[in-house]
Design brief:
The chain contains 13 helices and 19 strands. The chain has helices at about 15-25, 40-55, 125-140, 165-170, 230-240, 250-265, 275-280, 285-290, 325-335, 360-370, 390, 410-415, 425-440; strands at about 60-65, 65-75, 85-90, 110, 115, 145-150, 175-180, 185-190, 195-205, 205-215, 220, 295-300, 310, 310-320, 340-350, 350-355, 375-380, 395-400, 420-425. Helix 1 (about 15-25) packs across helix 3 (about 125-140), helix 3 crosses helix 13 (about 425-440) and helix 10 (about 360-370) packs across helix 13 (about 425-440). The site of zinc ion has 5 residues, from loops. GO terms for molecular function: hydrolase activity; metal ion binding.
Length: about 450
């Protein structure tokens, strides 16, 4: 059944709450372990079914039992143009029901919000895209260029069973794709009552997870001992953890800071961007992590008995590098830990950075302004990583653009992987309207 607006004209936003709620009710918890991750196949089948209902054929590709991905292509009017990839992941991080005000997989509608794990990361966008495509199919709209839809598994645990699997094993599904949109961008940040920044992701930091290995002479815990692996490792970890890497303002961050300083009337000192960033309130955390490389110790492992000095000790460091700085960061770390500690990379994914210009950026900005006259679209860098890292391997220019208008007082970044994750219903409908406009003009 097509739901229509009171005017009788088909309304692209009519279904989005139902679609999002259905997706939230499918528990797609990704534990990082195939044996305990659930629901991705069911969610993928749901998406395929909703596409098939309106005549869009899709392919379902499993990377391992239950780890399913769905890809579909909507033909555009001009096949000579490159295709636009629109991607969203279907998995979510775990949620502990005891900590939540509502059950995390209930999809409850309360106080103008739709609640549930994945409400903003990122079943909201998954549902918005489905709503737009279903609306188009029913009303005969065709996009100006091919649109490839990809609903992926496993984004929350590194994309091996999702986007990376698709890129490595089924790259033909993305033939002709030149640009992409996905998470994490397009959301609003209120500067005042009449103006809102919309942060469009044009850059992502690199992921550089590494393990430090210290070796020493094993021995008895009661003896005088000057070659203790635990001591050596602890010293190195402390040096890394306390180190503040130098500030480097990339083009993306500079463009963002200039726009924000202008809006807030804050003086931007290029030598000291941190003073301006500190005035950004809830998004200071997001932006503050994008002006330097970071290295946070996250795990320690050594020993097996209280009175035995072990011969080895290891630590994991979660490092994130600015675009083009991965090798520099490696040298910086080598210097910090010293010659006796070995460094092993356990994950190394490149940073991304593209420019904030061109027709696609114009189309995003115009769609936002049309739906919110107070919109000020700005580029920004994400300190984390997304499926864009995998898709960029195909030479695709990736943006984070999942449009969402948020209430001024909502601490959006705290909801990512947070307790009581929820999305405002009017924000969800706003997102559909923006995407509908944008995808018609992409
Ligand atoms: Zn996500």
């Amino acid at each position: 059944m097509t739901s229509d607006a009171p005017s009788g004209r088909p309304d692209p936003t009519a279904e989005v709450v139902d679609l999002c709620r259905d997706l939230l009710r499918i528990d797609t918890t990704n534990t990082g372990d195939n044996d305990t991750s659930v629901g991705e196949r069911r969610a993928a089948e749901y998406v395929a079914e909703k596409l098939a209902e309106v005549g869009v054929e899709s392919v379902l590709r499993e990377s391992a039992p239950g780890r399913a991905n769905v890809v579909a292509r909507i033909p555009g009017t001009d096949p000579s143009r490159g295709a636009l990839l629109v991607h969203g992941h279907l998995d979510v991080v775990p949620a502990d029901a005891d900590e939540w005000s509502v059950h995390p997989f209930s999809g409850e509608l309360r106080d103008g919000y739709l609640w549930g794990r994945g409400a903003i990361d990122m079943k909201d966008f998954d549902a918005m895209v489905l709503a737009v495509v279903r609306h188009w199919q029913r009303t005969g709209v065709r996009p100006p260029r091919d649109i490839v839809l990809a609903y992926t598994a496993d984004e929350e645990a590194g994309s091996d069973y999702g986007a990376r699997f698709l890129v490595e094993r089924h790259r033909e599904l993305f033939d002709g794709c030149t640009e992409a949109i996905g998470e994490v961008g397009g959301f609003s940040y209120s500067v005042n009552d009449s103006q809102r920044l919309y942060l469009i992701e044009t850059a992502e930091k690199g992921i550089d997870w590494l393990r430090l290995h210290a070796k020493g002479r094993p021995g008895h815990g009661s003896m005088v001992h000057d070659d203790n692996a635990v001591t050596a490792l602890a010293e190195a970890v402390a040096r890394v953890g306390r180190h503040r890497f130098p500030v480097v303002v990339t083009d993306t961050v500079r463009a963002f800071l200039e726009e924000v300083s202008d809006l807030l009337g804050v003086e931007l000192d290029p030598e000291d961007p941190e003073t301006a960033i500190a005035k950004l309130g809830p998004i200071a955390n997001i932006i503050g992590a994008t002006i330097r490389n970071t290295a946070n110790p996250t795990r320690l492992n050594a020993g097996y008995k209280d009175n035995v000095i072990p011969g080895r000790a290891t630590a994991t460091i979660d490092c994130r590098s600015l675009p083009g700085q991965s090798e520099l960061l490696e040298r910086q770390l080598r210097e910090l830990v010293g010659p006796d500690i070995a460094i092993e990379y356990i994950q190394r994914q490149p940073a991304l950075e593209t420019t904030f210009d061109g027709d696609l950026v114009e189309a995003m900005s115009a769609a936002l302004r049309a739906e919110d006259p107070g919109a000020r679209p700005v580029p920004y860098m994400l300190s984390g990583g997304t499926d864009a890292k995998a898709f960029s391997q195909l030479g695709i220019r990736c943006f984070g653009f999942a449009p969402l208008r948020l209430p001024a007082d909502l601490n959006f970044s705290a909801l990512f992987h947070g307790i009581d994750e929820r999305v405002p219903v009017d924000g969800l409908q706003f997102g559909v309207r923006v995407l509908d406009r944008f995808l018609r003009t992409c």
